[in-house]
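BUG: 3D viewer hangs when loading the predicted structure for this chain

Environment: internal workstation, default settings.
Expected: structure renders.
Actual: progress bar stalls at 90%.

Input used:
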Amino acid sequence: MTLPFALNHMSVAKADYATTLDIAAQLGCVGVEFRNDLPGELFGGDAPSKVRELAHAKGLRILGLSEVKMFNVWDSTKAQEARALLTIAKEIGAETISLIPRCDGLGCGNGERQANLRLALKEILPMLQDANMVGLVEPLGFGHSSLRYKSEAMDVITALNGEAHLKLVHDTFHHYLAEETEFYPDHTGIVHVSGVEDKTLARGEIGDEHRVLVGPDDILGNSAQLRRLRDGGYRGPISYEAFSPIVHDFADPVGELKSSLKFLQESTAADASANAR
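Structure tokens produced before the viewer hung:
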């Protein structure tokens, strides 16, 4: 079993896009995810065509471009943001864009959050269809998130018959925080992995700043989650998305990431073997 790893730019947040592509190539990744929420001008002001050509030269897919933030607070401004992101994504040859829900404690009421989600996805689905792109809906497991559960996203996606252009992000961190038990391998567009090792924190106290590389002390159960997804037939990319400043300050990010990817590969295989007995 060889896992198709990828690199989210957040894991090497201080690197420019060219260095990110170089690191991904050194790690043997299948592709990268770029973001519009890191400091500085997107792609350092370089033309999208240059980004696409460099990725192609290194044999890497551009798996996605993030993000439409607070997409489920839909209005004319949000529609413009979505169209603008889709335009850039097409120009760089990205396969998807990311849709990130409101996460400020508002819009979380039962009924309200589902209605807001349906409105937003109903409006963005035709944009995705026209662009022949996939929108990745990413539930965030924080208690103050307006979309915590993949099940609620799937309810709306299926009601809209949007499965061809709307997929889920399975983030092992957010899956753990939400205490969700359902897996949707057939509807998953990408998997995000990161690790948490601080056992002193209650589940509700864990934040993005605690997301480090996955190792033996990980509490999220990454290997078990990946095994469940693989057992369900998921064969898509597994993208490393670590937010901790500790990771961003590594002197040797390639070496650190390579060690963690090796651990994930071996521990997922071991988990699969143990569960096959």
